[in-house]
Amino acid sequence: MPSITVKNLSISFPLYHENTRSLRKMTHLFISGRLRQDQHKKILVQSLRDINFTLRQGDKVGLIGQNGAGKTTLLRTMTGIYEPVVGHIRVEGSISTLLDPNAGMNFGLTGRENIYLKCSINGYSKKQTQEIAESVADFSELGAYLDLPVRTYSSGMQLRLGFGLATAIAPQILMMDEWFLTGDAGFIQKATKRIENMVQNSQILVISTHSAETIAKWCNRVLWLDQGFLKMDGTPEEVLPIYLNKPYEEIVKKD
């Protein structure tokens, strides 16, 4: 059964060229307590501070918070991109990530070769690989470009290939950022439909978003991050009214 356990998690990053940062931003970081020095006297920014929670089968979680609150850092740490400085994360189950459409993409290979490569890395059978390749080709609508090097693609074509490949198979755990909402209207419509299918079939969902509508539609739990801390953990009905300072009925009402 899939699960994610986050215990006493803290993440810090070196603050490079701190002398060039604005006085206002530096003052804010000092006041909020997010700056510290390590044993080598280097200044570090604390992106996440003592985060604790457990996700189980059926949890569909929305990550909210202002820019810089730590949402993307938390996602990247749960997927193994970043290593915890303090604490640990335990993930049980298969994961699919929608954080960066170009993640793991080899720009020197063709689109089709990238599909085969990813399927090989994930241990898919020849039949599964063929089904995935057909699904990606159909979704991306790249046609003959699928057999050209990815470096020749426009950014929109790269997005369609990366998204199609990342969403070809519904995982047990789905983690995603808001990048999938970028692109032309036609792509967004297709992407949303495909995402909704993945959301329904995934056993655990974690999405970083500023959209209360998305949370109300897809999520049954909300984690509110504030200055690196987990400020609140509850249902959308509990968290969103406090976060947005308005009644839940106003948040979800249709125009």
UniProtKB/TrEMBL annotation:
Molecular functions per Gene Ontology: ABC-type transporter activity; ATP binding; ATP hydrolysis activity
Pfam families: ABC_tran (PF00005)
Domain (ABC transporter): residue spans on this chain: 24-252
Keywords for this protein: ATP-binding, Nucleotide-binding, Transport
InterPro entries named among the record's database cross-references: AAA+_ATPase (IPR003593), ABC_transporter-like_ATP-bd (IPR003439), ABC_transpr_TagH-like (IPR015860), Bact_Polysacc_Export_ATP-bd (IPR050683), P-loop_NTPase (IPR027417)
Gene Ontology CC terms, in alphabetical order: membrane
PROSITE patterns in UniProt: ABC_TRANSPORTER_2
SUPFAM superfamilies linked to this entry: P-loop containing nucleoside triphosphate hydrolases
Keyword ATP-binding found: yes
Protein family membership: Belongs to the ABC transporter superfamily.
Protein name: ATPase component (TagH)
Species of the source: Commensalibacter communis
